[in-house]
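Example 3.2
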Amino acid sequence: MFGKTKGFLAILLAVLFAAMSTGTTCFAEESQFSKAQRFISDMAETDSEQPERTIISVHTGDDYSAILYDDGTVSTFGSNEFGQLGLGLPMSANTKVNVPTDIGSLTDVETLNVGSSHVFAIGKDGSVWAWGRGYRGKLGDETETNRNTPKLIQLGDFKVISAGYCHSAVVKNDGTVWCWGNNRSGQLGNGKIGSFSAPPEFKPVQALDLTNVKDVFAGQTFTFALGNSGELFGWGRNIGGELGLEEQKNIANPTKIISDVKKIASSSSHIAHAFAFKNDGSIWVWGNNHAGQFGDGQSGDEIITPIQIEELEGMAEITPGRYHTVALKEDGTVWAWGKNDVGQLGDGTLEDSTVPVQVVGLSDIVSISTGLYHTIALAGDGTVWSWGDNSSGQLGDGTNENRNSPVRIMGPSLEVDKTDLQAEVDGVSYLERADYTEDSWEALIEALEDAHAVLGDEEATQETVDNALEALKGAIRGLVHRDTPTSKYELEVEDSDDYEKQATEAGIMLMLKQNVTGFKHFGAVVRATDERLGQLEVVFTHLRNYIQRGLNSIQADYDADMINAKAGFNTEPGDVIKIYMVDELTNETDRNPIILK
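Structure, written as tokens:
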């Protein structure tokens, strides 16, 4: 599992990020700092030349994240307070990496299990590697030492492993459950409840009276085990209803909670709530609901025993955070509810919700993982998205800014078609502000500015482009014409092989054909339909690529029966000549959209 390391790059990244977050100077001279930045840039360019990897799974701990690739490599980002990034970096609260960075020493990893502050990597050869916080012996290396690089540990044969808060658990191939680490709440399930002064269990101990188990989950101070028959068992802390059992006390022996369960979802947070998916499609919940994290429209005290939440039916996956919950629907959309003070609901707001709200901008999501206050999502196209708390760089977007809507951080380049949006933006150039009311014109300008921003955004998704297009079309449809007097003249332009004619609200447009080039004259005839003193101005505007290249205006007596106007421009194929009229006396722009024959 071990290959060539990129530890130097990782160290430089972490040092630079720590400097930016703490305001300290990491290098004595500016030139040294610049050299380090150039080194990182060079390494990034080198990495970008490597064959593109496919992302297999995404994972989250309390304030960090991890990604597993199809080539068996792993990248991590976020806090490295206890070495949980595995990059060999200094273990400090100020060591933060805000972009996915490879653990260069790891290869051939088949599965990952990420806990509150420690990680297990299972190799394709069955080997187990652990790193991160070693408090109470939870790494399984028979010490309490924090590890900032992967360490090989010996666990024997097993089929499932789970990293909790201060303990860990496995399901062995024979269906028994074994746990090690902290046992102060009875979370090891061996019939004992430890004390603060008692040493931890450094070696795995068997949870009593459990066989035929297929899955295990190690939480903060409790453990769940799911049997092959669908029976769910729990042990450890139940003071706040964490286990879903009536007795609010620490429970040292595995105890049945509920039957006919297909899978379980909980959190390694101190404030815990849990969801059980039953085989009939129903979803049951228990534990803490202070912030409405059940999703049933209610909030309040703990729910001690499981209750069914009909509002959640149709959810394919649920990942609880500390005071919120995120869920993946069967249609690939993502929904969230509960507390939203750092944007962890991903709905574009900071407003709490006791019912599911849709995470904006996401579709075709195949898996999600939620930490204390942030979520990572993997889409079917291989892209990775994140939102919520980013104080430790756990979103992986290169910043430490919280996000209340998903930001794309990884994945293959997406083919985004902006053609229709560009065409709609170009068409707006033919509209005249004077023709429309101020309110409707301002709405158009706002939609146009948004469209320009999307066109210039290299990270824009197809959904963002399509939304901008619909908004712009809606603003155009919403334009309200000013009240104008009846036209007092008619405008006629001759037919010609040099151009195609089109009458629009902006005037008569002459679209030059591909064989037209050089200096050309264009003529128009204006016939008065009503007597009135003043001057009439016929305006010829020369456009190339929708940019005005020239303008000529011809004045004549308004009360004349006929006005012949002509203007010349140096043209190229594809240019557009726009012809319209202005009454100088009233400064009105009058147009006749009907080409006279």
